[in-house]
Write a structure and sequence with these properties.
Elements (H helix, E strand, L loop, with lengths): L2 H23 L5 H27 L6 H40 L21
Helix pairs in contact: 1-2, 1-3
């Protein structure tokens, strides 16, 4: 393995390592876990952008090990997309339940949207 390929593999592996905690965070779709997942996704994106830039500039080359790592990341990305969709659905259903408990139902029998609480507006 050439040093250029080893460098590319290091960037790809760094990006892939950031996706593992994202998957774990999304198993419990709380606001805190979603925030942590966003940080890790951002770090993975930065590592992939560094890899792409290095490949364009000839400082890194994509070999078989790099392609295998990128394929693993593609599979993880599909899993993350499914987990995010699940988290969105979970929060959507909680909002519907909250609406039904706090605001009742609409004339069509659907849970009402939660009514916003009082707010203040100041001009000065």
């Amino acid at each position: 393995m050439s040093s250029a390929e080893a460098g590319a593999l290091a960037w790809a592996a760094a990006a892939r390592r950031r996706l593992d905690p994202v998957c774990r965070s999304l198993l419990s779709p709380s606001a805190a876990s979603l925030g942590a997942a966003l940080e890790d996704l951002g770090a993975a994106q930065e590592a992939l952008e560094a890899l792409r830039s290095a490949c364009r500039e000839g400082r890194a080359e994509e070999g078989g090990a790099v392609r295998a790592t990128l394929e693993q990341m593609r599979r993880q990305a599909r899993l993350i997309a499914a987990l995010l969709e699940h988290a969105a659905g979970w929060h959507r259903e909680w909002a519907r339940l909250l609406g039904a408990l706090s605001s009742g139902y609409t004339a069509q029998g659907e849970p009402a949207s939660p009514t916003p609480g009082p707010s203040w507006s100041l001009e000065g």
